[in-house]
Amino acid sequence: MPPPPFISFEQALQETAQTKRHLLLGNGFSIALFPERFHYGSLLDQADFTGFPEARKAFDQLSTTDFEVVIQALRQAVALLPLYSGDAKGLAKMREHAEALKELLVRTIAGRHPERPSDISDEQYAACRTFLAHFVGDSRNLKPGGKDLRGDVYTLNYDLLLYWTLLHDQVVRWNAEDPLASIVETAEALQHDDGFRAPDGDPEAPYVTWDGEEAHKQCIFFLHGGLHLYDYGYELQKKCWERSGGIPLVDQIRAALNDGKFPLFVSEGDSRGKFERIRHSGYLHKGLRSFAQNCRTKSAALFIYGHSLAANDDHVLRQIARGKIEQLYVSLYGAPDSDENKAKIARAQALAAARTAQFPLNIAFFDSDQANVWGANG
User: Fold this and answer.
1) Which of 114, 104, 101, 98 is nearest to 37 (CA)?
2) Residue 347 CB neighbours (<10 A)
């Protein structure tokens, strides 16, 4: 297979100037801004394993800091142990710890999450909105008489950074030398319909609900759920700052966790487990179907930022391999010849190799720093 092309982010934008672009975000999107908060290593250091110390030792035994790797290993052990041992007590403990790790991951992310939207500077919001505008900005809606090239944004992250950024439509340009000369700018409008609306019969509710029958224009999808989404069986609720009387979202989320209520969260260890979880949620399944549909659109382009293309997300990535979409742009962090990037390149090339000659997949890689997602300090 020929060596993959490496291009600048600007060149990738030029090549797709007249093409609908879709965006898939991985954990690198959040790590780029808050590495000390969202990297799995830092999450592990902060997690409280009181009550199941064996699970903590499992991370060391498997030489990993990734919660999903350990969850997957425990689930596999539960499946295999009956073949080799009748240790029902050990089997029950491993099953219990696999579930406990899922809850612990949610609590740890919530505990490490930035407290307030103001923890992100206006300059960082402005940079991120500029990046997102390449996909869902009003400038992509070419008027008059042109095509609407605004695409969809999919995220595999649970945190609130994307949500906060989409709502932060005013940026203060602060003048330190002359504060009175500081100005407030309205940022480029971003299409950010997430499918949530005021609930029927209760327009003043302190939350909004998702209605799959009415979410025709939805373009923002949390493919694995999020800290602000709660499934109550009869409805999926999204917690809101403005509807709750100004109670910060992170405070609402932590209060819910303290009450034993957990957000919609896909944290199964392997792709098969994640897919099964997704299939049992109308919201999650719609997001995956939307991604699959876009991957079947030959004339579109897909950008992947901050994702390793690891096998535990094959339920998402195989939609690319099965699709017809022609252009795929993948971000690389650091030296292209690093072991991590070489593995990512190989996984991307495997997606292309799975295609038939009738529907080839053209892949290019770009330096993630060039995308300037959170600005120079992000």
Assistant:
1) 114
2) 16
At position 268, the amino acid (one-letter code) is E
Residue 7's SS3 state is coil
CA distance 209 to 236: 5
3-state secondary structure 192-231: CCCCEECCCCCCCCCEEEECCCCCCCCCEEECCECCCEEE
Smallest Cα–Cα separation from 43: which of 105, 97, 99, 103?
A: 105
Q: What's the CA gap between 82 and 97, in Å, rounded?
A: 17
Does residue 218 contact residue 195 with C-beta atoms inside 8 Å?
Answer: yes
Give the C-alpha separation, 274 to 119, whole Å: 31
pLDDT in tens, the chain (378 residues): 566 789 999 999 999 999 999 999 999 999 999 998 888 777 788 888 988 899 999 999 998 888 878 888 888 888 888 888 778 888 888 888 988 888 888 888 888 899 999 999 999 999 999 999 999 999 999 877 788 999 999 999 999 999 999 998 877 666 667 766 666 778 899 999 999 998 887 888 888 999 887 778 899 999 999 999 999 888 899 998 878 878 889 999 888 888 878 899 887 778 888 899 899 999 999 999 999 999 999 999 999 999 999 998 999 999 999 999 999 999 999 999 999 999 999 999 999 999 999 999 999 999 999 999 999 755
Torsion 318-34-61-76 (CA) sign? negative
In the structure encoding, which two tokens stand for residue 13, read together?
């934008």
Q: How many CB atoms lie within 10 A of CB 300?
A: 21
- Single pTM value for the model: 0.87
Residue 257 makes CB contacts below 8 A (sequence gap 6+) with: 106, 107, 110
Residue 51: exposed, middle, or buried by beta-carbon count in 10 A (0-12, 13-18, 19+)? Answer: exposed
Sorted by where each begins, the domain ranges of the chain are: 9-34+118-371, 40-112
The partner residues of 295 in beta bridges, in order of sequence, read none
Residue 361 main-chain phi, psi, to 5 deg? -115, 115
